[in-house]
Enoyl-CoA hydratase
Amino acid sequence: MTIYDSYENLEITQDGAVLTVSLNNPPMNPISGARHRELSTIFQDVNRDDSVKVIVLTAPGEVFSAGGDVKALAKRLEDKDFDSWPQTMVEAVDIIYSLVNCRKPIVARINGNCLGLGASVCLLCDITVIVDDAVIGDPHVKIGLSAGDGGALIWSQHVGFMRAKEYLLTGDNVPAKVAAEIGLVNHAVPRDQLDAKVDEIVQKIARLPGPAVQATKITMNRVLHRNLDGLVEASLGLETWAFMGAEHREAVFALRDRWARKRG
């Protein structure tokens, strides 16, 4: 038995001191339902595992994550099933803080397009490597929601206030190479070099003294933590305000129907 045996929706594997957490819901790897719940606890559990020195966060296939599950969101709105929304917001707070508070360095292996909550999760990691033919973006506004799951807070930490405002207020995606140039991510590499680059970074960290690395992360993240305190809850409250609006419902239904036509 390990502390990871209860995880059924995240794929968790360990190789020496490196733990890999995969979203494991191809082809689009949305983060919702049970997977959202598990993501809110996994990094707290890894914090208690002394055998782990580095975490890799990734996903299978050619897309990292499309963010939320549009079909599930549309069904919730159609059914007027709002009872689970407060728990979703609690989990969202836990996801954000658990990434920031995890002492172990987290390397995001971004194997394809990375959107919405998927982007927020990656940008809250410590080092990010993305394939250079992908895009990263936070299109919450395009479905009538505010960027409440950490995006409005973390983007400006990486690229500055004005750039962050432009991307989040328009919902535009950022090509991977541009993301690397402006400091939104660390590295954009050809797809066939992704694993080698991630492994290079991971092994370099794994060879270093764990307490020194962890103490350095804790120290640096105190600045981030100070900026997040109070703002996380406020941003999620504002997202709830947008969630209850008619424009959000209309946008979600339109997106669902558009996807259905493409696939049908």
Observations:
- The radius of gyration is 18 Å.
- The first strand starts at residue 11 and ends at 15.
- Residues 11-194+211-263 form a domain with the 2-enoyl-CoA Hydratase; Chain A, domain 1 fold (CATH 3.90.226.10).
